[in-house]
Amino acid sequence: RKLKKLFLFLILLFSFTIVNAKGAQAKKYNRIVSLTLNGDEMLFGLVSENRIAGLSGKINEDKEISNIVDKAKKFPKVESSEEVLISLEPDLIIVADWLSKKIGYLSELTGAKVYILKTANSYEEQKKLIRDLAILVEEKENGEKLIANMDNRLKALQNKIAKKYKGPKPRILMYTTFGSTSGKNTTFDDMVRLINGINVISEAGINKYQDISKEKIIELNPDIIIVPIAKKYDNVAKVSKLFFEDPSLKNVKAVKNKKVYFVQYKDITATSQYMIDNIENLAKVVYQFKE
């Protein structure tokens, strides 16, 4: 009788182990490929690395643009190679909305589900993207952890700004080395709002991404100018001269008060969970927080 009981116990234990082992791997998608940098970054925050089959391309190994340089090194990069994509045997492919014309084609090519990852235009949209992707890859809890981390850090930052800064709202302009800027309905605009600043381009009623003239900079007269740069492509000293050695800009407040700040692209342009790092970086520059 004792043997019978032991035998039944072992069968139950064995059955339980099998069910648990299957349950641990019973995710719908286990060979996920991302074809966009923000998808690459979000995946690392959501799923275990053994579920990632491949990433977008060498862009995620560029330390001036990517937040996942070390993690990305060990994964195959699709770039634009159909052969590499097929060889990875994906069951889920994540593409950016600006690549969405390829959706039917990618699905036919690989038999995988193709998921369109929208480009976020605000902090709230970014959180929704994380939540939606987390549900798709069956990692809802990890998604909520990422979002809670973002919200907690934002709240702490806003409290810090309210406590340490009592002056008028800083008027801020983003101006790239290509002569373009970010207005309404952009992540930069929302980031400025979240740190209690004013985006002068949005204030002027300019929408999305536009080129602006030097005359417009003079007219808007911002307190602070943020210039995104990639050091290997942009010569900071040379770009700096465009502002500080141009007599026509000498009366612009940001130039006059030497508040033209050069910020690495990855520290200002992330559309993933790293957006909270960008918001913190922007506040540190704008308010010159030391810690």
Key structural traits:
single chain; 291 residues; alpha/beta; four-stranded parallel β-sheet; 13 helices; 10 strands; 47% helix; disordered N terminus
Q: SSE string, helix = H, strand = E?
A: HEHEHHEHEHHEEHEHEHEHHEH
Shape: globular
- Ends apart, CA distance between termini: 70 Å
Model regions low in confidence, pLDDT < 50 over at least 5 residues: 2-24
* Global Rg: 24 Å
Beta-strand percentage? Answer: 5-15%
- What is the mean pLDDT? 87
Portion of residues in helices? 40-55%
Number of helices: 13
Please state the structural category. alpha/beta
Work out the number of β strands: 10
- Which strands sit side by side, in order, in the main sheet? 2-1-3-4
Describe the structure.
This protein is of the alpha/beta class. The protein contains 13 helices and 10 strands. The strands form 3 sheets. Strands 2-1-3-4 form a 4-stranded parallel β-sheet, sandwiched between helices. Strand 3, helix 5 and strand 4 (113-117) form a beta-alpha-beta unit. The radius of gyration is 24 Å and the shape is globular. The termini are far apart. Residues 2-24 have low confidence and may be disordered.
Describe what is shown at a glance:
With 291 residues, the protein is α/β, with parallel strands linked by helices. It is built from 13 helices and ten strands.
